[in-house]
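Practice problem 4.
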């Protein structure tokens, strides 16, 4: 049985749409018009509760859209209604796009999953691993500056092996993945600076201690792991990653509204405003994250897109690497991508949900406590997508 592809983009932290996927009456593709009303009812409850300002929801099955609806507002101040082609910052839903790019390069023989990262970024050789000192040994180095938390105390030991491309794809590298490594990454001489590119910044991460021995546990590398994979892709392909993604992924799939940065001012009115929840209700966010500096291409969370654009990407994966006659990956490669490389028994993973190459994989819905089917795979974004 074909599984439906479901997309939800919320504007709290908001979401998008943009292609030419055929539509159908729900009943024509095995869905229920009556039960689909629950989607709007659910979103409306969140709108009434002030969870977010607006959303776009989309459900497709067998390659056709059976539900596509805009809810709420693009912007609270202007009262502009949400639009189906709204642009959203999809944050970590960028990661599977990077995963596909790496797997395309694997198919071409330019990258191997077991390659050490140092093959592409020499500064990642001879890494160290942080070992936290117990509280009795001092615990922390004292109060931080300007209200920052105290830096944890640790000593470093040699890594037992180099981190690999697969380690980065599966969040088992230990690269900026916990208390110690995050603290070290915030130091002024490490932080990403204005107008720095991946090639400028990422090599500095090679001087940081890993949070744990590579492969010994799962811990989410929110930015660094996939930002590093962007540089790997650039070195292996000889192209800037935004050019590679546009020519090799977005263009072929017809994802005309997906980008890291754009000089096209016509996109700006379509960007859904972003809000944080507070005691006073939703508070508009007017600043961008530090990695949105105009030069850095964040594989961890830098893309803007629409719901319908991302649908094309999702359909490509659901269909074994191709959609509408356009093939990006071979079926076996997609099967490997969505296979459970990291079992749910590895420390850090919840029972019932393993991890593939850039995507979570549900292996036991009962243990996971979800109604999703076994084999469901994907990822979500911190801003509500």
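Answer key:
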């Amino acid at each position: 049985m074909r599984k439906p592809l479901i997309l939800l983009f919320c504007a709290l932290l908001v979401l998008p749409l943009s292609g030419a996927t055929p539509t159908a009456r729900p009943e024509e593709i095995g869905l229920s018009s009556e039960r689909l009303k629950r989607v709007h009812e659910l979103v409306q409850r969140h709108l009434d509760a002030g969870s977010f300002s607006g959303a776009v929801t989309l459900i497709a099955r067998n390659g056709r859209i059976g539900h596509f609806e805009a809810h709420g507002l693009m912007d609270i101040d202007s009262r502009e209604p949400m639009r189906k082609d709204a642009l959203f910052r999809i944050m970590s839903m960028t990661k599977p796009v990077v995963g596909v790019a790496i797997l395309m390069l694997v198919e071409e023989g330019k990258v191997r999953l077991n390659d050490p990262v140092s093959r592409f970024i020499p500064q990642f050789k001879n890494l160290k691993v942080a070992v936290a000192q117990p509280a009795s040994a001092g615990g922390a180095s004292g109060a931080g500056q300007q209200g920052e938390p105290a830096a944890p105390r640790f000593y470093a030991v040699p890594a037992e092996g180099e981190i690999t491309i697969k380690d980065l794809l599966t969040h088992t590298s230990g690269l900026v993945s916990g208390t110690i490594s995050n603290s070290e990454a915030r130091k002024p001489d490490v932080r990403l600076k204005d107008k720095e590119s991946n090639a400028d910044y990422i090599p500095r991460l090679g001087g940081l201690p890993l949070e744990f021995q590579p492969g010994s546990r799962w811990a989410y590398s929110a930015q660094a792991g996939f930002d590093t994979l962007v540089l790997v892709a650039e070195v292996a392909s000889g192209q800037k990653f935004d050019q590679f993604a546009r020519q090799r992924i977005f263009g072929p799939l017809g994802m005309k509204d997906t980008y890291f940065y754009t000089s096209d001012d016509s996109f700006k009115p379509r960007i859904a405003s972003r809000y944080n929840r507070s005691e006073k209700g939703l508070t508009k966010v007017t600043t961008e994250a530090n990695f949105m500096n105009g030069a850095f291409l964040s594989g961890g969370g830098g893309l803007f897109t629409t719901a319908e654009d991302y649908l094309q990407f999702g359909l490509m994966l659901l269909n074994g690497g191709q959609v509408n006659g356009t093939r990006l990956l071979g079926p076996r490669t997609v099967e490997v991508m969505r296979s459970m490389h990291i079992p749910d028994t590895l420390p850090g993973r919840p029972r019932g949900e393993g991890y593939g190459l850039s995507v979570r994989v549900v292996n036991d819905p009962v243990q996971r406590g979800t109604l999703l089917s076994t084999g469901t795979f994907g990822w979500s974004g911190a801003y509500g997508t």
